[in-house]
Amino acid sequence: MNDSIKQYVENDKKIIFISSYPKSGNTWLRCIISALLNNQDGKFKFDDLNKIGLFSRESHFKHFKNLQYQENGNLDFNFVSNHWIKAQQKINLENEEVKFFKSHSVQKISDRFFTDETVCLGFIYIVRDPRDVAISYTHHCGGNLDVAIDTMLFNEKNYSSRHKTNELISTWEYHLFSWKKFNTVPRLFIKYEDMLEDTKKILLQIMDFINNLVNSSISQDSNLIDSVLSSTNFNYLQSLERNKGFKFKEETNNVPFFRKGVSNQWKSVLSYNQLNLIENELATPMQHLGYLS
After folding, report:
1. Is the Cβ–Cβ distance between 44 and 31 less than 8 Å?
2. Residue ranges making up the domain that contains 98
3. Which terminus of the chain has fewer CB atoms gathered within 10 Å of its CB, N or C?
4. Beta strand spans in the chain (E)
5. Count of beta carbons in the 10 Å neighbourhood of residue 251
6. Are 152 and 277 within 8 A, CB to CB?
7. DSSP, res 280
8. In a domain, 283, yes or no
9. Which of 27, 19, 44 is nearest to 257 (CA)?
10. What is the CATH number of the domain that holds 196?
11. Residue 6 above 60 pLDDT?
12. pLDDT tens digits, one per residue of 11-33
């Protein structure tokens, strides 16, 4: 990790989450942060993503007593959610450096919080127009667009499963709402569309956020910034995936992970009824985010 952020963190909190609903640009954001923090020249490599791994994995919970598993071999979700904070406490105790983690989990379920101000240093949340999320969700799952929309809008028990651990994703609206309510730590909300339109501007915001968060001084050298931007644009990432493959895909289909990297696909893909359903159900948050006037 960049020497500039290898510093003591107040209260010994080391964890910074990169959170989002699936198919909202989380991996692209992690590519940018990985290039920025892990290489002096700012040149991104896929292996750098190992340094911003998924928090919800068996290895973070297997040291607890009385492990509980489901029939499919995954850890029992109630067991995991009851140990979210304890697992993060252990990570903080065992690490001297800042630790970035990816998450698609909701921030709260019933009386349990995924993370809180006692263990979390801060978080970055990337949000994307739900009309485009639905399309990307369908492509990567190899499923039906109507099913993808229905899942995003209504399936409060929508889970993702990796590394023998389940994450509760819930609905698009509740996911966003649960992280919006988490206002007791520093946070940065980013729109996917803004990253597409002006990646450099968002990169500088991220650098400022991290610098303020850990009292560091990540260089704003123009050569470093240019290298980060050139090695994490979609054309470069698509080429990298074609030539070397992308082992971090959550699905086992043959659909490329870095598929298009565009916005407003919904205008030519969604039917009138599909568009009407999404916009009616999500009118309030979409208006607040500027997706609807």
Report:
1. yes
2. 3-130+159-258
3. C
4. 15-19, 99-103, 108-109, 112-113, 120-127, 159-162, 165-168, 187-191
5. 11
6. no
7. H
8. no
9. 27
10. 3.40.50.300
11. no
12. 589 999 999 999 999 989 999 99
Q: SS3 for 126-189, per residue?
A: EECCHHHHHHHHHHHHCCCHHHHHHHHHHCCCCEEEECCEEEECCCHHHHHHHHHCCCCCCEEE
| Partners of 127 in the β-ladder | 191
Q: Residue 274: is its pLDDT beyond 80?
A: yes
Number of H helices, E strands in the chain: 13, 8
Bridge partners (DSSP) listed for residue 100: 16
Any domain includes 149: no
| Cross-strand partners of 190 | 126
The domain tally of the chain equals 1
| 124 residue type, one letter | I
pLDDT at 49: 84
Domain assignment present for 224: yes
* Positive or negative torsion for Cα 115, 98, 26, 241: negative
Nearest-CA neighbor of 143 among 52, 228, 245, 253?
A: 253
pLDDT, tens digit, 9 for 90 and up, residues 205-234: 999 999 999 887 787 889 999 999 988 888
Task: Round to whole Å and give the CA distance between 84 and 56.
Answer: 9
- Alpha-carbon distances, residue 9 vs 22, 64, 253 (angstroms): 30, 26, 41
pTM of the model: 0.91
9 within domain boundaries = yes
